[in-house]
Amino acid sequence: MENDSRNKLEKLKEEYHNIPVPASARENIMAGIEKAKKEKRMRIVIQFTKKTGLTAAAALLAITVMANVSPTTANAMENIPVLGTIAKVVTFRTFEDTKDNYEAKIDIPQVSIGDQANTEVNKSIEEYANQLIAEYEKEVTEDVAGEGHYSVTSNYQVVTDNDKYLSLRINTTVIMASGADYVKIFTIDKATGQVVTLKDLFRNKADYIQALSDNIKEQMRAQMAADDSKMYFFESGEEAAEDFNQITGDESFYFNENGELVLVFDEYTVAPGYMGVVEFTIPKSVTGDIG
Known about the structure:
This protein is an alpha+beta fold. It contains eight helices and nine strands. The strands form two sheets. It has a six-stranded mixed β-sheet with strand order 1-2-3-4-5-6, with helices on both faces. A three-stranded antiparallel β-sheet has the order 7-8-9. The model is unreliable at about 50-55 and about 70-85 (pLDDT under 50).
């Protein structure tokens, strides 16, 4: 009797588990599970922020760093709401070569922002790297006697990653008889996925070149007056051809943590070589709130 009851109970359980679930109900169940996972991830971020005393901006920075370090983390973070567009920068390839007194190591990055392909941006980055490679190979090829010296090192860093822009800075050092540092910055509009120029930023301000140039001159004067070791190619009194007069509009730039525009000049461009690469932070009173 007891065995019959147990068998009936097992049969009823089996019939219950075999009841078909409508497709619409299954979709609702899966959507609920996915929603719960997202909410759990958000709670983890919020709890982490509270426990560590991080500000929201600092928490976002930490998450962005994690996204660039781990592809798995990046894929998970892309599903978290309100955090904004996740930008990822990875080394696409590295050109390395060593021949006698010649040496090259050029890291070539690739950018992806959200679900955009960013094909044009990455093509521009690779074209810039290919110019460096071509110049190196030209030096090697032309040195028939094998007595030359040439070294090129190029790497990159993310200097801006805010709600609006991603700025990828390419730092290159070329050493021949002496060394020279060069900087190329690709600032990308996250909304469009396109590289932006100073002209794009100031499309509604016709006199931006004069306004930015005047501010840079003011900074040059102030720095030279405060520090005898500072020197710029500016107001030499000899009307020298290399004296800085105004920007060209093609300068590299990025935005600092305060959203201020920073213009970057290559070594020897506006100052002697010992000054290295120089930067000028332009106050928002001149630029307006563009960063």
